[in-house]
């Protein structure tokens, strides 16, 4: 996805300009760049006039607006993808019953212990990693695949009134804003 924006940044200014002109015509607006007054400085007799580069209004728009906006979009998307990756690393094993059932014993245990570390603050724990592992190991054996969404798993746990660590884990996963994962 990011490579799309990077290619767009490098190659699509002319297409964006053409699309903008079409939209301007549809809105009965003359598609014209505002011309700013170009300040001219006094030349000294020893200055080389050929080295002075005067940006066209279109080139100025491309650099000052188009590239700025596309670069901002790329940066924002990269940040979001990094946040989603962290979120997936922390909570990914809880996303679905299929995912939960596909994990081998050792990997599930490792994920639960890492989950405990992620939520640990000083000596305070929201969830015990070993307890969560034990609950999820049993839960994945008894729950059906028809409850494949995270919210369905949470509702199932609530309905049978068991698995307190798993219940807390799913509540946290379903209520935490992804943008706060990095905080």
What's this, in brief?
With 183 residues, the protein is mainly α. The protein is built from 8 helices and no strands.
Number of domains as seen in the coordinates: 2
Helix content, binned percent: 55-70%
Shape: elongated
Major sheet attributes = none
Strand content: under 5%
* Number of E-state strands: 0
Give the low-pLDDT segments. 49-54
Structural class: mainly alpha
* Number of helices, where a helix is a run of at least 4 consecutive DSSP H or I residues: 8
- What's the average pLDDT? 81
Distance between the termini: 25 Å
Radius of gyration from the CA trace? 28 Å
Keywords:
183 residues, mainly alpha, 2 domains, elongated
Describe the structure.
The chain is mainly alpha-helical. It folds into two domains: 2-35 and 54-85, no CATH class; 95-180, no CATH class. 64% of the residues lie in helices and 0% in strands. The chain is built from eight helices and no strands. The longest helix is centred in the middle third of the chain and has 35 residues, at 57-91. The protein is elongated. The relative contact order is 0.09.
């Amino acid at each position: 996805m990011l490579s799309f924006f990077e290619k767009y940044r490098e190659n699509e200014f002319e297409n964006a300009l053409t699309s903008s002109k079409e939209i301007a015509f549809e809105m009965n607006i003359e598609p014209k760049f505002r011309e700013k007054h170009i300040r001219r400085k006094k030349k000294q007799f020893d200055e080389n006039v050929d080295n002075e580069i005067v940006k066209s209004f279109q080139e100025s728009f491309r650099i000052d607006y188009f590239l700025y906006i596309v670069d901002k979009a790329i940066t924002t998307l990269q940040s979001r993808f990094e946040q989603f990756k962290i979120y997936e690393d922390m909570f990914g094993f809880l996303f679905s019953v299929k995912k939960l059932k596909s994990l081998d014993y050792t990997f599930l245990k490792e994920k639960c212990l890492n989950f405990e570390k992620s939520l640990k603050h000083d000596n305070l724990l929201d969830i015990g990693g070993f307890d969560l592992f034990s609950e999820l190991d049993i839960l994945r054996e008894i729950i059906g695949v028809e409850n494949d969404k995270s919210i369905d798993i949470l509702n199932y746990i609530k309905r049978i009134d068991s698995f307190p660590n798993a219940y807390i884990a799913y509540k946290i996963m379903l209520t935490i804003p992804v943008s706060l994962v990095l905080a």
